[in-house]
Design a protein that fits this description.
- The structure is a single chain.
- The protein is α+β, with helices and mostly antiparallel strands and 113 residues long.
- The protein has a single domain, classed as TATA-Binding Protein, CATH 3.30.310.110.
- The chain is 25% helix and 35% strand.
- A five-stranded mixed sheet has the order 1-2-3-4-5, with helices on one face.
- Strand 3 and strand 4 form a beta hairpin.
- The longest helix is centred in the N-terminal third of the chain and has 17 residues.
Length: 113
């Protein structure tokens, strides 16, 4: 199996599993998985209502870039999601914490670009 397909499977499985959970304080929302296979983009969004406030937020946003690195653009949880991915065979050197500046990435132990 190619690296990109393996990484796609890891990301899709992760989002499918996480999408099963909904915060108890947001009973009128739903989780939506959005996948763009042409551009290798993966998102999990929460949409709905919290009382009279409309909720439309990105929980996770990932992309597999041409160099077969997984760029994490957003992780609005307190989870360290990369540990599980590494245990499934994703290389730490293929994970880019894109929400950090390149200077911070250089000290993270993950890929810089």
């Amino acid at each position: 199996m190619s690296k990109i397909i393996h990484y796609q499977n890891i990301l899709q499985d992760f989002l499918a599993e996480y999408a099963k959970y909904k915060p108890v304080n947001l009973p009128d929302t739903e989780n939506k998985i959005i996948i763009d296979l042409n551009n290798y983009e993966y998102l999990l969004m929460r949409v709905g209502w919290q009382g009279k406030r409309f909720v439309h937020e990105i929980i996770f946003h990932f992309q597999i870039r041409i160099e077969s690195k997984v760029w994490i653009y957003a992780n609005w949880t307190d989870m360290d999601i990369t540990e599980d991915w590494i245990n499934q065979g994703m290389l730490k050197s293929d994970i880019v914490l894109a929400f950090h500046s390149p200077e911070v990435r250089a000290e993270s132990g993950y890929a810089i670009v």
